[in-house]
Amino acid sequence: MIESDRELSAMVQELWDNDTNRLKPGKDYRISLQGKVGDTMGNDDKNDAHGFPLFTYVDESIFKKETFLAFISLLDNYESDTGEPEIVTPEEEAENHKFLDSIIQTPTMKIAHKYLVEKNLSPKDKEKFKEQLYRIWFELYARRGSSRPDSSGFEHVFVGETRGARTVIGFHNWIQLYLQEKLGHIDYKGYSVNANSPLPDENKHILALQFSWKHGIKPKGSIFIGVSPEFEFALYTLCFLSSPNERVKVQFSLYDVEIVCHHYNQKHIGTTYPVLLKYQSAE
């Protein structure tokens, strides 16, 4: 592991250790992995051998916590089709700021901010830091094939988008997945593994999976499960600002993970998500 990745791993471990709002698998939530899917799958129901939801239980009292509440309020602010320009209302802009205000107070975001200031990657002033976060995550830009601003890092990563009605892109967040599944908009197809990746574990916090959403299919997505919005926001911001590489290997807790973080114009997050490489063996 190269030195910069080792340093980042230590930071991610600190974020993990201080993620006080993280849910406990088997206690605060339960998932049902069911079966494995192949890498390709048509968009029809007969391919779904399971038909059962991924989430069998979530203690929804967690959604009353400030950062979860502020996060969930943002999920209905977007037009999912790429190519459809986004109109941000004053109310939605206020919700974005309220979310940033809530996460900036959390231990994970304070740790990330302190580190980024020490590395001269973020301003020390909290308001200026918030402006930086807003630009990275919420400023609109035009995705491929669109001439007008139709996307943002937040929309792509946390909410999900559709391309050509048949393909789901982005959508790397468990809270959105759970809420959409509860509404009947998600059809979980099964977990996804390749020859080198470890088998998923219902009591671990990272999962590669396949699902359909609305009328599109996500052939393979990878998400953290049960972590807080502030943990993901802090982690991805840290990787975006501190690493010129678009794939960063980090080790923390029980996981060896590659964080994929594509930059858009070096100013915004294009996409970002975790890829589980292996479980660390317990000492």
TrEMBL record:
Organism: Mugilogobius chulae
Subunit structure: Monomer.
Cofactor(s) this protein requires: Mn(2+)
Sample GO molecular function, one term: RNA binding
Pfam family, one: XendoU
Keywords, ordered alphabetically: Endonuclease, Hydrolase, Lyase, Manganese, Metal-binding, Nuclease, RNA-binding
EndoU domain residues: 4-278
Lineage, top ranks: Eukaryota, Metazoa, Chordata, Craniata, Vertebrata
UniProt-listed PROSITE patterns: ENDOU
Catalytic activity, EC: 4.6.1.-
Similarity comment: family membership: Belongs to the ENDOU family.
Reaction(s) the record says it catalyses: ribonucleotidyl-uridine-RNA = a 5'-end dephospho-uridine-RNA + a 3'-end 2',3'-cyclophospho-ribonucleotide-RNA
Signal peptide: none
Protein name: Uridylate-specific endoribonuclease
InterPro entries listed in its UniProt record: ENDOU, EndoU-like, EndoU_C
PANTHER family, per database record: PLACENTAL PROTEIN 11-RELATED, URIDYLATE-SPECIFIC ENDORIBONUCLEASE B
